[in-house]
Each structure stands twice: as C-alpha cells, then as structure tokens.
Request: fold
Amino acid sequence: MRTPIVAGNWKMNKTIAEARELVNALRDELTRVAASGKAQVVLCPPFIAIPQVAALVKDTPIKVGAQNLFWEVKGAFTGEVAPTMLNEVCDYVIIGHSERRQYFGETDESVNKKVQAALAHHLIPIVCVGENLQQNEAGQTQAVVGAQVRAAFKEISRDDARGIVIAYEPIWAIGTGKAASGPGANAVIGLTIRGALADLYDEATAQAIRVQYGGSVTPKNVAEFFAQPEIDGALVGGASLVAADFIAICKAAVE
Ligand code: PEP
Reply:
C-alpha cells in the first residue's frame, strides 16, 4: 500500500508574516489529516519562510519541503541553497518543477544531480515531470515523460529509488484551471511512469514509488484524482495558498 502524499507548492508567494498566518489557519486540520496515518502532508514555502514554517509545525506530523536546492554542499555559488542547509529544517524538496525548467535553465542533467544530492543528505525528492501542450497534442507524452523519468533516476539505486516521490504535472495543466482528467493522468502514471520505472528497476519497485498528480487541483476536482489507482496524492499550487481549499484537498486524501 502506498501512502498518498499531498504537498502544497507555494511558489513565490507569501512573505514570512503571511506564511505564519497561513500555517496558523492550516495547522489544526492538517495535523488531524497527517495524524490519521492515511496521508502525508507537506508545506513547501519559499526558502526564506522555511524556518518559520518549520518552527510552527514542529510538534505536528505536518512536514516541510523546499522548492529547489543546489547539489554542492558549500562554496562560491552565490544565491544557491545547499542540501546541508535544507535538511536542518526540511524533510522534502521539490526538484525539476516545470517553472524551473522553463525559466531557470533546469535540465534533465541538473535534475539528476539534485536528486542525488537530496538523497545523499536525507531529503526526500519530489521530482516533477510532465509534457507541454505542444508535446501533448503531438502524441509525444509517453516519449517526453518517459525520458524525464529515466534521466532523473540515472545512477539511483533501487533502494534509494523507492524513497523518491514523482509528481506528474502536465505543463498545460499547471496554473491554467484546465486539469487533466483523472483517467488520463492515471494512464500516464500507470503506463508511462511506472512503465519506465519497471524498465529501470523491476515491477515491484515501480509499484512501490509514489506518484502524485499536479496541475490545477482544486477541492472540486480532487476526488476524481484520488479515486485513481495509480495516483498517490497531489502536488498543489494555487489552491495550497487558500487555507480552506488546501484543507479540503488534504481531507479528500483520507476519505
Ligand atoms: C504546481 O505549482 O506544481 C501546480 C500544480 O500548480 P497549480 O496547482 O496552481 O496548477
């Protein structure tokens, strides 16, 4: 049985004061969800708010994640944040989000280096993969997503692979209000993503790895995703910024 994981990606939103306010609004309800043991809940604020958020959820089962990291542990890398800095305050780290691939030069190679660095420093990677609209319409989803998975898991051992979380996020669904269909996302995750993992490792490993869906998840459409057998939770952007919406989405994971 794979335990679903619901992660809120706040992107570049919320000052420290606003982050505190949001966590205070989320904490009691999300603590109940996470304490049920039926789902894990992760908040991924901007770097600067992470220590504050971590302190606020310290005595709860709610986990904290970062939205990126660099693969070196220290040195002359102005503006970057090391895994050894993050693992003091985080358990998770999002890697390869499409916005980082699109705006900040993230490549399949850098994603793989970051996954290796995260694992080496006891951070759980949430690795994002997904095709853009053009690729989707050209029937290239399987090729694109399969290649992203293979590149991200390059030189990752079977044991380490089992601890990685994948987020299938079709780019055309992120922040657009046009979510994938539940069965559509289920098919990509089951056939393409687990298929690539089975080729890389074996069927048991492919079945053990948690794969979330992400892309315009809302309280209204979330049940359709959580009803799918291949989907293990959600990576939520916009709706994770609204306390009532994120609470409703997290609750749906344990219903
Ligand atoms: C995301 O940021 O990863 C995301 C899926 O955003 P949204 O839920 O707003 O589409």
